[in-house]
Design a protein that fits this description.
Distance between the termini: 32 Å
Number of domains: 1
Strand order of the largest sheet: 1-2
Number of helices: 4
Shape: globular
Helix content: 40-55%
Structural class: alpha+beta
Length: about 110
């Protein structure tokens, strides 16, 4: 990701790299270590993941401005075909269920 940021004009000296993390909670703690004097951040993550992420970063004392991306919402007109099952539906269900489990795990529901 650093390589992409530099390619888009972000100065190398402005980029900080966190330690290895495996959960959003761990990431929020790592970012707090990297930015001990910073209270305001812009949080960029998937729209469906944003409520949980925002809450975890707020628990670390950050004032979070959200920038949701990768929205899974469609604004196209609905037809009868939209109500028929698709093979992709199971994957979408898995994503939603995993997110709900994550929210339950962190006590956010």
């Amino acid at each position: 990701m650093k390589k992409y940021a530099v390619a888009f004009g972000v100065p190398d000296t402005a980029i900080k790299i966190s330690g290895l993390v495996t959960t959003t909670k761990d990431e929020s703690k790592e970012i707090r270590k990297l930015l001990p004097q910073t209270n305001k951040i812009i949080l960029v993550t998937s729209a469906y993941h944003m409520p949980r992420s925002k809450s975890l970063f707020e628990r670390q004392g950050f004032e979070v401005t959200t920038y949701p991306v990768d929205s899974k919402v469609s604004f196209e007109a609905t037809t009868i075909i939209d109500y028929l099952p698709e093979g992709d539906s199971f994957k979408k269900s898995e994503t939603a269920i995993r997110e709900l489990i994550g929210r339950l795990f962190y006590g956010l529901i």
